[in-house]
Amino acid sequence: MNELLEKLAVCVERGKINVQSPYPPDMKGQDGAYEITKKALEEGINPQDILNNGLMVGMGKIGVKFRDNKVFVPDVLIAAKAMKSAMELLKPYFQSGQVKHKGSIVLGTVTGDLHDIGKNIVSMVIEGGGWNVIDLGVDAGADKFLNAIKEHKVKAVGLSALLTTTMQNMETITKNIKEVFPEIKVLVGGAPLTNDFANKIGADLYAPDPQGALDYLNTVFA
Ligand code: B12
Question: Could you tell me the strand order of the sheet in which 132-135 lies?
Answer without folding.
Answer: 132-135, 104-109, 156-160, 185-189, 205-206
